[in-house]
C-alpha cells in the first residue's frame, strides 16, 4: 500500500506539469498572435483614417 502511493502520484504530477507547460505555451502563443493582429489592425486604421488630435 505505502510503496504504491508514490508510484501513483509521480506520473500524475509529471503529466500535470507537462499539461501546464503546454497550456502556458499555447496561451502565450495565442496572446502574442492577438497582440500582433491588434497592432496590424490599429496601423491599418491609422493609415486609412489618420487620427487628428
From TrEMBL:
TM annotation in the entry: 20-39
Keywords: Membrane, Transmembrane, Transmembrane helix
Official protein name in the record: Uncharacterized protein
Amino acid at each position: 500500500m505505502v510503496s504504491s502511493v508514490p508510484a501513483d502520484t509521480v506520473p500524475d504530477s509529471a503529466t500535470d506539469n507537462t499539461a501546464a507547460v503546454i497550456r502556458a505555451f499555447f496561451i502565450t502563443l495565442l496572446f502574442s498572435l492577438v497582440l500582433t493582429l491588434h497592432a496590424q489592425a490599429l496601423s491599418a486604421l491609422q493609415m486609412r483614417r489618420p487620427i487628428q488630435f
